[in-house]
Specification:
Blueprint: E1 4-8, H1 19-34, E2 41-46, E3 49-54, H2 60-67, E4 75-82, H3 87-101, E5 108-115, H4 124-138, E6 143-144, E7 151-157, E8 161-164, E9 168-169, E10 181-185, H5 191-201, E11 205-212, H6 219-236, E12 239-245, H7 247-256, H8 262-280, E13 286-287, H9 300-307, E14 315-316, H10 324-334, H11 337-340, H12 347-351, H13 362-369, H14 376-385, E15 388-392
The structure holds adenosine-5'-triphosphate and magnesium ion.
Adenosine-5'-triphosphate binds next to helix 5, strand 11 and helix 12.
Length: about 400
């Protein structure tokens, strides 16, 4: 019965003069999402509204499923588009609509007409009253409730007439790309894919970097990260995944620095390298899955020691104050959880000391890093020069 969707957006409506930029970005994201569906769709912007019109047969559930992943969408309304052929014909069509969509008539309703085309011969209030009467005559079991109706039947009169009563919730947020780009430090764990999703939801495009340490971390661990990036890309669009070979740097730190500080020093090098890639790729921030207190490297002192080297751009940590279970809930919702819990080691776990420092002192860490002076710059450069880049998308 439906061939079109009316897309409702909330927050982007308040952007004043820049509103059209947000709308255009949303149209682009919707077009990208609909390309993944069977069938052909046209996406059009029309007086502060976005419509998705199917041009061919399509699978309703599949289309809704893809729209539900487009940030910036507040609601997805399956809509019936009618030609204006007079009020009597409209009544007939409305009766048919109600009959089809609500087989159980034991419901309350309210008609809400919006006359955007001012030359329509009836006013909104009049349409509401007359149409309400017509529906009551046709279905005596139905009742009017103007405060909390089960069915809010909206009739929008424009160049065509649009009829809808259902709003399927969208993901909210802002269209990806309207908020610049950031570099996600993506590991194989539960937290970082969630962090990437959360930042992207605010309209930020995501690139990612993964630190790989072969042979200590296997090809399967790397594949797991690629798979996670692919799942996240369902929401964010294509992700440039930078894969850095971190083995030599890790070994060198292991050789030269106290073992209980290894994780912190390693994390400082991850941040340094990530910043470098980020500034070369027009990213304006780093994103991590860190969360206070989760592990030794995420105490406030450890975070401070890690953050000490982040002098080129801010680090965004959307999971920072979240409980693990809440992060897990999001990862289940977005579909990354099953992949995240696959048992492949990530590069931190192999070199982790039995008793890592939980309260590192920044000055001490800096001093111990001086042990690396001889070769570390060269190693970092080699790691950057030999990075592999994969464009991940679904
Ligand atoms: P996650 O579940 O995201 O792996 P975690 O709880 O295991 O996080 P850590 O291993 O301490 O925590 O990592 C903290 C953050 O550092 C991660 O969320 C991620 O952003 C980044 N990170 C850790 N290891 C890597 C890696 N090998 N490559 C890229 N980023 C990493
Ligand atoms: Mg991890």
């Amino acid at each position: 019965m439906y061939k079109s969707f009316l897309i409702k957006y909330a927050e982007i409506g308040v952007k004043g003069k820049n509103r059209y930029l947000f709308e255009d970005a949303l149209v682009q994201q919707i077009k990208y999402a609909m390309k993944k569906c069977e069938g052909e769709f046209k996406v059009r912007k029309n007086s502060g509204r976005i419509y998705v019109d199917a041009q061919t047969d399509f699978d309703f559930d599949e289309a809704v499923d893809h729209l539900k992943k487009v940030f910036g969408i507040w609601g997805i309304c399956p809509v019936v588009c009618l030609e204006d052929e007079g009020f009597d014909k409209l009544c007939e069509d409305v009766i048919h609509y109600v009959d089809q969509v609500y087989p159980d008539k034991n419901k309350t309703f309210k008609v809400m007409a919006r006359r955007a085309r001012k030359n329509y011969p009836m006013e909104s209030m009049e349409i509401n009253a007359k149409m309400g009467g017509v529906i009551l005559d046709a279905f005596p079991e139905m009742k009017v409730d103007v405060h909390k109706p089960d069915i809010l039947l909206t009739i929008e009169i424009r160049e065509k007439i649009y009829l809808y009563s259902e709003i399927i919730p969208g993901p909210g947020g802002m269209p990806v790309g309207t908020g610049g780009k950031a570099m996600l430090l993506l590991s194989g764990g539960i937290d970082s894919p969630v962090a990437g999703y959360m930042i992207a939801k605010r309209g930020v495009k995501i690139d990612a970097v993964y630190f790989h340490a072969p042979p200590y971390t296997s090809e399967r661990a790397k594949q797991k990260v690629v798979d996670l990036a692919r799942i996240v890309s369902r929401y964010t669009g294509p992700i440039y995944l930078h894969i850095i070979n971190f083995t030599d740097i890790q070994m060198y730190i292991y050789e030269k620095c106290p073992h209980d500080e290894l994780t912190i020093i390693m994390r400082r090098y991850m941040m340094r390298i990530a910043q470098q890639i980020a500034s070369e790729t027009e990213c304006y921030g780093l994103v991590t899955g860190e969360s206070i207190g989760q592990v030794a490297s995420q105490t406030l002192q450890s975070l401070m020691a890690t953050n000490d080297v982040c002098d080129q751009m801010p680090v965004y940590r959307p999971c920072i104050a979240m409980d693990k279970q809440d992060i897990v809930d999001i990862s289940e919702k977005i579909g990354t959880y099953e992949t995240s819990i696959l048992p492949f080691e990530d590069c931190c776990t192999i070199f982790v000391a039995k008793h890592p420092v939980t309260k590192p002192n920044v000055k001490v860490i800096r001093r111990h890093e001086e042990n690396l002076a001889e070769k570390i710059d060269e190693m970092v450069q080699t790691a950057l020069d030999t990075k592999e880049v994969i464009v991940v998308s679904e």
